[in-house]
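Incident review: delayed structure delivery

Summary: a single-chain prediction request sat in the queue longer than the usual turnaround. Root cause was a stuck worker, restarted by the on-call engineer. No data loss occurred. The affected request and its eventual output are reproduced below so the record is complete for anyone auditing the incident later.

Affected input:
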Amino acid sequence: MPGALRRRTRTPAALDRAAPCGIRRMAHMCPAAELALPTADDLELIEFAREVIDANTDAGPDEDGAHTMGAAVRAADGRLFAGVNLFHFTGGPCAELVALGTARANGARGIETIVAVGNHGRGVVGPCGRDRQVLFDYHPGIRVLLPTAEGVRVAPIETLMPFAAAWSMADGVGQFDEQRFS
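Output delivered after worker restart:
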């Protein structure tokens, strides 16, 4: 059908090359008991991220590009903000960090939920390690939408960071805080 998007099938190695920070589609990240089903608001957030990356990608369905991932966040007041990645060999920002910066620049202080998606219908993609650490440090309790073998699920950032030590500008790296994981 002319103008229809083709779905790509990629090997794990190809996914690593195409996604920033070596992100892979994760088949299973944590025990199912710790994951929640997405809400209608979560599905709206996924769609918003997908629309933003599909409107702004610079890569065709079988091409690499600098802008291949989109992310969206929902602020505590319900507003949605989006960003796209800027892939660069120096470790350019992931879409999640751009979305967080966009939200902050527009006055959002509390961020409740985040999702990243790949261009051309590649679906939800989990955050890389750097993004997880940033989310953990700046947005405790944020809900993260993730791909699983059972479909998209939701987990608090603490679930993705077991035994992490939080960092702050004032105190640097702190000791393990058991209260964050109970």
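Verification: DSSP finds five helices and eight strands in the chain.
Action items: add queue-age alerting; document worker restart procedure.
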